[in-house]
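Here is a typical sample entry:
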Amino acid sequence: MEITECDITATESAAVIAAAELIDAAVVAGEREPTLASLARGLDMQPARLRQVFTARLGLTPKAYADARRASRLRDELATGAAVSDAIHAAGYGSVSRVYERHGVLLGMTPARYRRGAPGEVVGYTFADTSLGRLIVGTTDEGVCYIAFGSGDEGLLGELAARFARAEILPAREEQAELVEAVVALVEGATDADVPLDVRGTAFQRLVWDALTRIEPGETITYAELARRIGRPTAVRAVAQACGANPVAVAVPCHRVIGADGTLTGYRWGVERKRTLLERERR
């Protein structure tokens, strides 16, 4: 049976936070995460109930949360230049082969390739004119990886190249034109545009970005409310930073987040664009 946050007591809410912290501590220590049974036992709860309230609060089961945190640790370790085997063990994975089997889910590429900065990966780019100004769309074989507004092609391309520093940046292939058309349609107000994404970020950023896509067109929420929706009510600043790091304008609608006083606070691509997007969605 599905439950909402209204069905969760204050004690249970505190237990969820405690369980997440125990999982985080295990990942930081490079250890296996505690089992659901051991978490429940330590928190004096029934395992089924703990799993239920944990999922309702954080949007992930304890196991899925642990997997996301461990994958984030693996990415961080590889980014430092650590040897692949050392990074895998530091993140708490018991088997190197197991990580390679799941590399697409965990990293989007093999650990060795991720460590090298994905050399050889191809990111296609296309410029487009929209009612909100010049736009660049970055695409991979998996979907759209970058959307940004700007005033000049050179600057937009430079930003794309900086984000994918080790990738090969080339004009998009003809077969990727449909992706660009879908992005332009989305910018112009289409609500049924299908834009498959290939967005990469930390586990926390992806949690925030996923929550952003669940905000209805025309609806606005505050950063504090967004933090509550992902089960991190004290992480307002981190949530705002994750919104600012969103690499796909409009497709992940960070423009629907406003300040606590209702004002249209800073938007990476300009407050006027933010206002226009919201006005279109409310028509």
Observations:
- The chain has three domains: 5-115, 122-187, 203-278.
- The chain has a mean pLDDT of 81.
- The beta strands are 122-130, 133-139, 144-150, 168-171, 221-222, 257-258.
